[in-house]
Amino acid sequence: MDRKQLFIELKDIQDRGITIFLEGEQSTPENVSDQMFIHQEYSYMRDYVYDEEEGVVKELHFDKVRNV
Predict the structure, then answer these.
(1) d(CA 44, CA 37)
(2) Do 38 and 18 form a contact (C-beta atoms < 8 A)?
(3) Which whole number is the average pLDDT over 32-51?
(4) 17 contacts: CB under 8 Å, gap ≥ 6
(5) With a threshold of 0.85, does the pTM exceed it?
(6) What is the mean pLDDT of residues 7-20?
(7) Please, which pLDDT band fits residue 14 given cuts at 50, 70 and 90?
(8) Cβ contacts of residue 7 below 8 Å, gap of 6+?
(9) What does the alpha-carbon distance between residue 30 and residue 3 come to, in Å, rounded to a whole number?
(10) Which of 43, 40, 36 has the alpha carbon at shortest distance from 66?
């Protein structure tokens, strides 16, 4: 997936009211897509946080995967 495709996907997610986080900080589609392509040497894991009462995604977190 290239930077533009990722940005479009994340913008759509944000437009649906889902809050986006990068490394524990609230972020934007622009920042996440830029950082992921600037730091291509890292892998990022997506973590979807659900609102259990409503049964919908409320947050999307991107965190670097660290090898131990």
Answers:
(1) 11
(2) no
(3) 93
(4) 58
(5) yes
(6) 97
(7) very high
(8) 29, 30, 33
(9) 9
(10) 43
Q: How close are the terminal C-alpha atoms of the chain, in Å?
A: 27
State the amino acid at position 32 in one-letter form: V
What the block records as the tokens of 48 is 């979807």
pLDDT of residue 68: 61
The DSSP 8-state label assigned to residue 46 in this structure reads E
The token duo for 52 is: 């259990």
Q: What whole-number distance in Å separates Cα of residue 40 and Cα of residue 44?
A: 9
Tokens coding 3 = 């930077």
User: From the CB of residue 66, how many other CB atoms can be counted at a distance below 10 Å?
Assistant: 7
